[in-house]
């Protein structure tokens, strides 16, 4: 039977139909298969990757690369790659997959808002994930099975959940929001679940936060450290666009353009799309094999909201405060935040004192909050006035007396009812106060005082360590308690004091108050091999003033007043008491 016989040709055709389809890189698979629904993306439909996304995607599917680290900004469209990677492995290389996210809420939001809609909209993935869990047949939102594999979505704040899983593919998103706990770093715990797979894949991505403790920056430093470079339209030289290359005319951020560091020509925004299309990744440490690292910022994003002029406008709005500037540096420039100082010098702070206080409120103050520290024999209260862009420490009051006595709390109540005349003619009153209830011995007394004054926004607070919001309501039943993220607030206060004058001081504050404000220093300690930022008390120092300021800062987040309206109100003189008719003394009484 010859090779040209009809029977041989039919057999060959039948055998060829059994041959698996050619292996596609992840970028090609995404553009061939992935569909985005309109409730997930502003550009629904077929996916067309940008130039800088392709090499990142291909590294995620490259069998010769074990680890991929992505230092990312916002507005570069990389969140979709996370779901695309899950989909590609589920459809083409069924494996046990683990996705690690910071919190349980993040896990649920990702599943409902991204994973399920994208799988449903993509024909190659539709119906692939069932609702059945491998754990006793229970249906769970965060545990799915598919033919040949499974997907578990786990919160880093629940590291015990990691013990039960052995996985081949590990995806870690927003790694810098994950802190070591009692069992160690959740990132390292998750990585250990991949040890039984010789062909494991570990993908970590995050917007960086603090340079000293960043998980993603530490991982990127161990990679081949790729940077995305674009060609200059004038000289053709490839350059990574950095913020230092963006310039604009004074007071005209909309004129922002890129100055080429080689030829020094100014390149306008209209050339950006062509520059991105012609861009390329360059490994700065090509000797590293098996670990691809990518760093990309929003300056190369084609998004309309990432235009250089808009980013310049955002920068000008953010630069006035270290808090907002850090957000810009982290989320737009994809850089870790370098903290300006680790401790304060009380003498330098006291030298900034200004001639105003509780008896002479500055005109820029629009709101007042207080922080109260509870000691056995006294209550200490710091009042802070808030302008639109600064915190003004107006004064500090100590109420002496046992906190077991009702008279001590009555004196505090009278103090918190104080009103102050405003230079504009109106009257200022306390907007909110938080009283420290974390002592334990006097917790019940604080609750009893705050409960009937809830409508006045006088709240019981308890400091909690770690990465926490400034203030959140406790979920404990029967207790109106607010949890205060003291580490974050102390960092904010330290940064603001060391980087500018957005915290100002009354000349009425005593030297001892400044010593207490500067009573702690910021240090980096290693917990189970991972760097953790902490605040430690300087030996022999008291910290009542610092605690009061932290709680007064937290109380600011409970103030919801409209500042434009408040400014109008304070510019209106308070109503004067009615003038009574004068009493005329009769001459008859003088007889």
TrEMBL record:
InterPro entries: GpA_ATPase, GpA_endonuclease, P-loop_NTPase, Phage_lambda_GpA-like
This protein's name: Phage terminase, large subunit
Domain Phage terminase large subunit GpA ATPase stretches: 42-281
Domain (Terminase large subunit GpA endonuclease) ranges: 291-562
Database matches in HAMAP family: TERL_LAMBDA (MF_04144)
Protein source organism: Sphingobium chlorophenolicum
One of the record's GO molecular function terms: ATP hydrolysis activity
């Amino acid at each position: 039977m010859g090779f040209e016989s009809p029977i041989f040709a039919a057999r060959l055709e039948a055998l060829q139909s059994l041959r698996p389809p050619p292996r596609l890189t992840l970028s090609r698979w995404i553009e061939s298969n992935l569909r985005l629904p309109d409730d997930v993306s502003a550009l629904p439909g077929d996916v067309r990757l940008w130039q800088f996304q392709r090499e990142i995607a291909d590294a995620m599917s490259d069998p010769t690369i074990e680890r991929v680290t992505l230092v990312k900004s916002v507005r570069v469209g990389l969140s979709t790659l996370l779901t695309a990677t899950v989909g590609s492995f589920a459809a083409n290389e069924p494996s046990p997959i683990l996705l690690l996210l910071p919190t349980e809420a993040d896990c649920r939001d990702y599943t409902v808002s991204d994973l399920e809609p994208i799988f449903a909209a993509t024909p190659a993935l539709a119906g692939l994930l069932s609702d059945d869990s491998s754990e006793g047949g229970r249906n769970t939102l965060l545990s799915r099975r598919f033919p040949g594999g499974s997907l578990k979505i786990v919160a880093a704040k629940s590291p015990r959940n990691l013990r039960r899983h052995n996985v081949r593919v590990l995806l870690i998103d927003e790694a810098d929001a994950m802190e070591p706990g009692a069992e160690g770093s959740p990132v390292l715990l998750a990585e250990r679940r991949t040890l039984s797979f010789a062909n494991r894949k570990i993908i970590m991505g995050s917007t960086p936060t603090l340079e000293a403790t960043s998980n993603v920056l530490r991982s990127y430093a161990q990679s081949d450290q790729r940077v995305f470079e674009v060609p200059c339209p004038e000289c053709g030289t490839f350059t990574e666009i950095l913020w230092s290359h963006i310039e604009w005319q004074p007071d005209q951020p909309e004129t922002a353009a890129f100055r080429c560091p080689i030829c020094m020509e100014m390149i306008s925004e209209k050339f950006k799309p062509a520059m991105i299309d012609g861009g390329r990744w360059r490994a700065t440490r090509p000797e590293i094999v098996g670990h691809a690292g990518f760093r990309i910022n929003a300056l190369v994003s084609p998004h309309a909201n990432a235009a250089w002029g808009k980013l310049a406008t955002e920068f000008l709005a953010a630069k006035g405060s270290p808090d907002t500037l850090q957000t810009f540096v982290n989320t737009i420039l994809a850089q870790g935040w370098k903290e300006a100082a680790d401790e304060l010098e009380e003498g330098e702070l006291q030298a900034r004192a200004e001639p105003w206080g509780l008896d002479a409120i500055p005109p820029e103050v629009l709101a007042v909050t207080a922080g109260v520290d509870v000691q056995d024999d006294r209550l200490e209260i710091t009042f802070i006035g808030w302008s639109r862009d600064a915190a003004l420490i107006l004064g500090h009051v100590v109420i002496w007396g046992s906190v077991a006595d009702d008279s001590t709390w009555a004196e505090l109540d009278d103090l918190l009812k104080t009103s102050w005349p405003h230079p504009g003619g109106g009257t200022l009153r306390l907007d909110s106060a938080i009283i420290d209830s974390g002592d334990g011995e006097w917790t019940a007394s604080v609750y009893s005082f705050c409960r009937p004054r809830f409508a006045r926004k006088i709240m019981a607070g308890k400091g909690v360590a770690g990465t926490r919001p400034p203030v959140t309501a406790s979920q404990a039943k029967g207790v109106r308690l607010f949890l205060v993220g003291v580490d974050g607030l102390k960092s904010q206060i330290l940064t603001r004091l060391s980087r500018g004058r957005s915290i100002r001081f009354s000349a009425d504050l005593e030297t001892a108050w400044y010593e207490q404000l500067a009573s702690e220093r910021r240090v980096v300690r290693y917990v189970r091999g991972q760097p953790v930022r902490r605040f430690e008390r300087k030996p022999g120092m008291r910290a009542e003033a610092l605690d009061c300021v932290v709680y007064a800062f937290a109380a600011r987040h409970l103030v919801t007043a409209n500042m434009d309206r408040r400014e109008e109100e304070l510019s209106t003189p308070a109503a004067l008491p009615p003038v009574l008719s004068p009493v005329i003394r009769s001459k008859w009484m003088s007889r």
